[in-house]
Every structure is written in structure tokens, then in C-alpha cells.
Amino acid sequence: MKICAFIPARYAATRFPAKLMQPLVDKSVIRHTYDNTVATGLFSDVFVVTDSTIIFDEITNNGGKAIMSIRSHESGSDRIAEAIADLDIDVVVNVQGDEPFVKKEPLQKLLEVFKDPAQNVRVASLMQVLTSQQNIDDPNNVKVAIDKNSNALFFSRSVIPYPRSTESPITYYEHIGVYAFKKEALLAFTNWEMTPLEAAEKIECLRYLENGVAIKMVTTNYMGVEIDTPEDLEKAAKLLQQ
User: Fold this and answer.
1) Nearest CA to 190 among 95, 88, 73, 48?
2) Among 9, 35, 210, which Cα is nearest to 123's?
3) Which residues pair with 126 in a beta bridge?
4) Which residue in 144, 176, 220, 239 is a FRET match for 207, CA 20 to 30 A apart?
């Protein structure tokens, strides 16, 4: 299988503008993400896909590979789909630009599910167990509920499942914004209209579920800090300096 990683990178983030270009100890957030993805050694190629000349220059001027988007896009998946349309690729890994703590082991685990033909996985993603009630309640942390085969049932910024019974043990999972797709599944995604649940939650992978495509969830250990707010940037800096 030919496997490539793509990092969609938007400069004008809604919650934290220019977050990918924020300095994180020794280099920008986006360069940490790019360099760590390359360092896994899992991919034939790694590209940042962006609509920003600032981000494009940040990557290419430091020896990396970047692709400028031709059109404007609603989601990172749409942005990647445009970039891969004419490329010879079997599996595409979407690493979010604000995930500077990318590691080899979780990505390797994610890719393993595509090697079993019996599972016929078209889309897969990562999750981690949430233990802190503060993190469970935080709408910036997207939660996922899964079935007994580790396929996603629903993604939400709300607390799912709701603990109506205090006697039933509940494991809460946080969805980590790292996906892997068969190329055809990602290209199909871009031909579907934005779906109602996706629009309400602002969680793009709900479009797959609303169109009947299963998402295999893979549990991983703590992935570090996703940069959504200035406070996250401070936490990430402390982790890097430990």
C-alpha cells in the first residue's frame, strides 16, 4: 500500500487565529506537527496543504513539502481531497495541523486496521480515554461513543453517553483529530453535502456516519495537547520543556 500523510493547515482559525504559526518553544506549531509526522517514518510522503502563503513559506523554507489549495474549503478533508485527486495513493492519513505531539506508535496502530481485508475498513480514527471530569465537560474536547466492535456511534461536543444511571460504569473517549482513509472514501466524502449533524456540531466526520460509512476507532495513549486556545499553547510549551 502507498500511504501518504497530509496536514490541512488554515491560517485564520476561528477560535485561535494564526494558532499554527504561534511559536512553541523552538519552532512554530505547524512545523512541530510536520516534523514529527515525517519523523515517524511511516509515510511515502508528507505534505502540508494550505490556503496560506505564510504557512506554505514556513514549511517550504524549512525544507518541507507543501501544497497550496486552489479552491476555498469548508473542512480539512475537502482540502486534502483536492490535493490527492490525481495522485497514486491507497491510504491517506489526515494529521491535524494543531497536533504537535504526533508519535509513531499511535499512527502505526491506526494503519494496522487497513491490513485486514476481512474488516474492510474505509475510514479509521484515533481516540483516547478521558478521566478528568473537566475534560469530559469541555466542549473543545470532542467525545465519541463506540459499539462493541469499536466503530463510532456518534461524535459530540456534549457529554456522551449522558450518565443517567450512576450505577453503570462509563468509559469516556476523546476523539483525536487524526484520520486515515481509503482514497475512494475521502473522494466520496467531498461529493456529499454537509449533513445536519455535522453542521450543528461542527464535527466533519459526522458526515461519514450520516451517509452510512463506518469509522473504526483505535484507542491510543495520551497524544499530548491539541492547540485550540492560548491556554493549550502554554500547556504544550510546558510539556515540551519537561
Assistant:
1) 73
2) 210
3) 176, 218
4) 220
The cell numbers describing 134, all together, are 473537566
Instruction: Say if residue 41 is exposed, middle or buried (CB neighbours under 10 Å; 0-12, 13-18, 19+).
Output: exposed
For the chain, how long is the longest CA-to-CA vector?
A: 56
Please name every residue paired with 152 in a beta bridge, in sequence order, or none if there are none. 146
Tell me: cis bond preceding 230? Omega within 30 of 0 counts.
no
What predicted TM-score, i.e. pTM, was given to this entire model?
0.87
**C-alpha cell of residue 44:** 511515502
Tens digit of each residue's pLDDT (9 = 90 or more) over 40-87: 999 999 999 999 999 999 999 999 999 998 877 777 888 899 999 999
C-alpha of 90 from chain center: 18
pLDDT at position 116 is 85
Question: What confidence score (pLDDT) does residue 6 get?
Answer: 97
Torsion of CA 154, 210, 86, 45, to 10 degrees: 0
- What sign has the CA pseudo-torsion 224, 228, 229, 233? positive
134-139 contacts, C-beta under 8 A, 24 or more apart: 135/174, 136/172
Say which DSSP state 194 is in: P
Cell numbers representing residue 226 in the block: 491539541
CB 89, CB 102: distance < 8 Å: no
